[in-house]
Design brief:
It is built from nine helices and 19 strands. It is α+β, with helices and mostly antiparallel strands. It has two domains: 3-89, NE0471 N-terminal domain-like; 112-374, Double-stranded beta-helix (4-Layer Sandwich), CATH 3.60.130. A hairpin with a 5-residue loop joins β14 and β15 (280-283). The structure holds fe (ii) ion.
Length: 380
């Protein structure tokens, strides 16, 4: 049984439900009204600006009828119905418990123990069965990477992987790029050397938030793919030395790529990025494209370099890595804001050919949210 109390000057109300008291401000409630004049009944978009709502908005009366709360505002003399469940789901009345480098409860960090439970799915199954697709996307949202097996061994099949949830992001490398041995490489990704684990394209702003790599040929020994959870690496750095963690979050690094005549990409962003309320949201780490770092004060540069070195050591620690081999028709994708990827060195005989492209996590989250609405979990 719920109860609603209006405070004396109508600035806020309090809902008492299951013994919990939750307050909502008049201006917040009015701004979040769902009546047809405030929100489009067709697409849910807000039809008014905040300036259309009087600054001195107050609640003059409230009526609670089971699950519906009716609120009347002055000076508009406007009555609006609210679904109590919607209000409780969107409640913001909680203690201010801002904690640095927090993560959503939907995210789970990992290390090499993840080897035994790599998020993997069958290409044909996720292509034909929405429930399989939902489960695979949910794992990518949670762990930041996922693998697909048994796909077609044909050029541009990677477009079908992206088409499962979203759209290719075209860049100066094209809609896709080929990764294979070249005699005169202009980029280290195209040689037989191993690469340190990195996030891709930190010199872009915004960075591509997904990278897909699709294997078409793999007869050379070695060349395994490896991924590292950048969020776990950041958590480790923070646990070891909070000053070092803070210095990488507080100061911008600089990244640059000028690998061909007509491209000079540059960005200025931190290696470990937090949201204003401390959520860990992005890791950028790429030794090949880190430019001169000039935004760290002189007195902090030595600390910054100590932190940068240790962050790299943690990333290189075998205890952090998950390794797998891609056979022709296999592919994987990473959340490029979080999961670093690398390739082990491979031997010269034989061939290895991957096709890669970029896409974005917003469309993956969107597809997942739609599938979760359409295909709710069946309670066991
Ligand atoms: Fe890469």
């Amino acid at each position: 049984m719920s109860k609603c109390i209006l405070n004396e000057d109508g600035k806020y109300l309090t809902i008492i439900k299951d013994g919990m008291q939750t307050r909502f401000h008049a201006i917040w409630l009015r701004d979040n009204a769902w009546d047809a004049e405030t929100r489009s009944p067709d697409n849910g978009q807000r039809l008014v600006t905040l300036q259309d709502i009087p600054q001195d908005t107050r609640i003059v009366s409230v009526h609670l009828n089971v699950a519906i709360l009716n609120v009347t505002y002055s000076p508009e003399n406007k009555a609006v119905d609210y679904d109590i469940d919607w209000l409780m789901k969107n409640a913001y009345d909680r203690p201010d418990a801002v904690q640095t480098s927090w993560l959503s409860s939907h995210v789970e960090t990992w290390d090499s123990n993840m080897m035994s439970r790599i998020p993997v799915a069958d290409f044909e199954l996720v292509s034909s069965q929405p429930t399989q697709l939902k489960n695979w996307l949910a794992q990518i949202a949670r762990f930041g990477f996922g693998k697909l097996t048994n796909g077609p061994v044909e050029e541009l099949a990677l477009n079908r992987v992206v088409g499962l949830f979203g759209y290719v992001r075209e860049t100066n490398y094209g809609r896709h790029f080929d990764v294979r041995t070249e005699v005169n490489p202009t980029n280290l990704a195209y040689t037989g050397l191993g690469l340190q684990a990195h996030t891709d394209n930190p010199y872009r702003d915004p960075v591509p938030t997904i990278q897909v790599l699709y294997c078409l040929e793999s007869s050379a020994a070695g060349g395994e793919n490896m991924v590292v959870d950048g969020f776990r690496a950041a958590e480790r750095l923070r646990a070891e030395n909070e000053d070092w963690f803070n210095t990488l979050t507080r100061h911008c690094a600089q990244f640059e790529y000028a690998g061909s005549d007509d491209v000079k990409l540059q960005s200025r962003r931190p290696m470990i990025e937090l949201s204003p309320d401390g959520e860990l949201i992005c890791v950028r780490f790429n030794n090949r494209s880190t430019a001169a770092i000039t935004d760290v004060p002189f007195d902090e540069m030595e600390t910054y370099y100590a932190a940068y070195r240790r962050f790299g050591e943690i990333i290189d620690d075998p205890a952090m890595e998950v390794t797998f081999r891609l056979e022709p028709g296999d592919s994987f994708l990473v959340d490029n804001r979080r999961v670093l990827h690398a390739r082990k060195g491979y031997s010269g005989s034989g061939k290895r050919w991957l096709q890669g492209c970029y896409a974005d996590m917003d469309s993956l989250y969107s597809k997942l949210a739609v599938l979760e609405t359409k295909l709710p979990e069946v309670a066991e």
